[in-house]
């Protein structure tokens, strides 16, 4: 069954933390939709290696129309977490225990959405204290899979394991 995966993203995302999971998901037959501030906006990764066109504005989408959520890292999650529309969108996936795929700085959005209490997670080292303070159980491992469907990873080095886990979760 093909899943429809929402990706919340804005400028200065970590290039490979979007492109690699997207490629893995698309290769497995899933659809990946980019959601940002403005539809049609072209954003660039922080390393300048990836350019992405935002397919849907946050005001145009309903989280109920998606099966899973991908949150790439970089500076994108920090910019998104100040906007209540992205926090509400994210909360929907957590409250309905739909798969959430978060890597590197991605958990910053989950922290501000207030959905980490009691969940198992990993993140890049500098975000570890934030997820702990949000009530999560932090593990310094390549991939952490919480029973609620939250799958997290630390850095681009973990992408092979992360990609395998997220593709497997949608089988």
From TrEMBL:
Keyword presence, Nucleotide-binding: no
Q: Which InterPro entries does the record associate with it?
A: C56_PfpI-like (IPR006286), Class_I_gatase-like (IPR029062), DJ-1/PfpI (IPR002818)
**Ranges in a coiled coil:** none
Superkingdom, taxonomy of origin: Bacteria
Family matches, as SUPFAM superfamilies: Class I glutamine amidotransferase-like
Q: Which UniProt keywords apply?
A: Glutamine amidotransferase
DJ-1/PfpI domain span: 4-168
Transmembrane stretches in the record are none
| Pfam families in alphabetical order | DJ-1_PfpI
The family annotation for this protein states: Belongs to the peptidase C56 family.
NCBIfam families xrefs: PfpI (TIGR01382)
Record PANTHER family = DJ-1 PROTEIN (PTHR42733), DJ-1_THIJ_PFPI FAMILY PROTEIN (PTHR42733:SF2)
Protein name (Swiss-Prot/TrEMBL): Type 1 glutamine amidotransferase
Taxonomic source organism: Fundicoccus culcitae
């Amino acid at each position: 069954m093909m899943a429809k995966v929402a990706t919340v993203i804005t400028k200065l995302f970590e290039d490979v933390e979007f492109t690699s999971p997207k490629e893995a998901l698309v290769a497995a037959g899933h659809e990946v939709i980019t959601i940002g501030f403005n539809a049609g906006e072209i954003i660039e990764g922080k390393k300048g290696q990836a350019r992405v066109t935002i397919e849907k504005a946050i005001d145009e989408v309903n989280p109920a129309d998606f099966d899973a959520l991908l949150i790439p890292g970089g500076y994108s999650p920090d910019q998104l977490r100040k906007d209540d529309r992205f926090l509400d969108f994210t909360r929907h996936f957590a409250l309905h225990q739909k798969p959430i795929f978060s890597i590197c700085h991605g958990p910053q959005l989950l922290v501000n959405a207030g959905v980490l209490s009691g969940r198992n997670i990993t993140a890049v080292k500098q975000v570890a204290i934030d997820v702990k303070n949000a009530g999560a159980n932090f593990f310094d491992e390549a991939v952490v899979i919480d029973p609620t469907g939250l799958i997290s990873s630390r850095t681009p080095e973990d992408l092979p394991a992360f990609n395998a886990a997220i593709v497997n979760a949608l089988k």
